[in-house]
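Repro case for the chain-ordering regression, as requested:
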Amino acid sequence: MKGKVEDKMLRDIFRQKLENTEVIPSPESGVRLMRQVGRKEFLRFNPSRFNIWYAGGIAVTGAALAIILASPVHKKSISDLLSSGTSEDKYSKMPDESQSAGKYFELEAQRPLKESGRIITNAARTNNTASAKKIQSANPASSLVPEGHIASINGKDIFNGGNSITENLRNQGLVTENMAAASVTEGCPPLKVSFSNIVANYDSCRWTFGDGGSSSEKNPEWLFDVPGEYTVTLSVFGTVNRHSSSSLTVIVHAAPRAMFEYSPDNAVLPSDEISFHNYSSDAVKFKWDFGDGSTSELFEPIHSYKKSGRFNLKLTVATEFGCSDSVIVKNAFSGSDNYIEFPNAFIPNLNGPSTGYYSSKSDEASQIFHPVSSIVSDYLLRIFSRRGILIFESNDINIGWDGYYKGHLCDPGVYIWKVRGNYLNGEPFTKMGDVTLIKN
Amino acid sequence: MTSDQQIIEGCAKHDRKSQQLLYDKYSRFLLGVCLRYASDKAEAEDILQDSFLKIFFNIKDYSGTGSFIGWLRKVTVNTAITNYHKNLKYRYHIEIEEFVSVETGVESFEEDFFTADELYKVLNGLPAGYRMVFNLYAVEGYKHKEIAKMLGIDTNTSKSQYSRAKAVIRDKLEKLGKLKNRYSEDNN
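-- result from build under test --
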């Protein structure tokens, strides 16, 4: 009943005071609004309100159209003037236009000059290159540049001699030496190889990679993921049905596979010794990381941990060619699924203290503060107020805190909890944290 | 003085002068509404602007039968709700003190004890969710079911938000009341 009265009182205060209160908006707010209205209004097409903006817009587009239409007319008249050549009369008749026409004339007159100039320089350039080519092909030393070892595995020095090679393919039609280069020619799968075609002047080219794949790009990239030896061939097609090809070999080494198990499965650390069982294949080198800072390079090590906990195990294996693989087991020995977790808030029942007994079904409303856990053998939960006063203690995991202290509901706020005990397999646990008591 | 009827007709024809008249006549009242739904005056003015845009461009929807001011207010409240949804992602935090605020004994206040300014301050300081529900329920007089629909929440959420809003408001008012009392005692 009390609630109702209060409720009405609050409502009345706000309703009477604020329902019809006026607040004066800042002056710029009105200006901003009208500007926005104007913008929206402008975008909204409405023939019945043909306002100044539309008129202005049409005037502007009209003017633009007029200019566009006018300009070819001008040009035409100018070309007429040019072709006829005798236009003294017209000039005198239209003194206003004569000036602009004169300007046009000047411009038009300059343009062909410029263009012819460009043609001349172009011609000069083609001449130059042609002569340069001739000189090069006349020189027998430069035509002998393409040699097998240049197109080496590294693909480094290839482009230096490239120009002369390319110039010659055109002229001589055939290059039988290596035209193809690869970034790497052996490695571990997946092996990514960048191939380069060092011929520059050709009509088309085709790469076949020896694994069924092909490409017509100039410099393709290819991924080899199956171990083996591949012959990669580049065919280059030049003009007049001439073509040549060259090939190189890519070796993809076998990849190892890392795999292991450990025993016993439900080990209790640190008392149990852990045996590792190695099921890796194709490997010759092994490296174990036990997650506690120690490592081993044995095939099947046995390890003793110095403390309990969860560890990340890692096995890295490698072949004689250095191809490697690794496998990680995260949070190993997580105590055969031992766990205990607490919530960070609960809402006590306002009707009065309870026994604290709970089950997952009976406490759907989170009225009791209690953990969820695997089976425990020993258990002690203590809850303290922020001043450090012990307000609750339980050595039965089935009894949680109901939020009451000596029969009185505690104030909402933060409380500290601390728990310690042992799991069923004897592994000890200690945890602490805080919980917020919420009053609903 | 132009009557509402003339203003409405003018606005329906998108007449600038009528729009300006409408703004001049009702902006202060509607800003009073907006300010209840906002966290400060700047936000309230943003809501006011959006509301007027809606009013100007949808004035044909006003049937002409109900009270015009009621319609204006409804549009404004709806705009405030839209604004709340738009900004929702920025303000999902609820301060824990506000959440667990403890109510003390019931004190009653005279209706005129607090000024409108103070009440606005209290509302502006509320978490947005509380503010929406409190305004819609207590001041606008909607039912929780309707509020739930408008805000896209559960009816029970509306109820619990309202009761928490009340607790927070009561707390704030009490503090304010004590301050004011002390101030007047000191003066006497």
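Ordering looks correct now. The mean pLDDT of chain A is 73.
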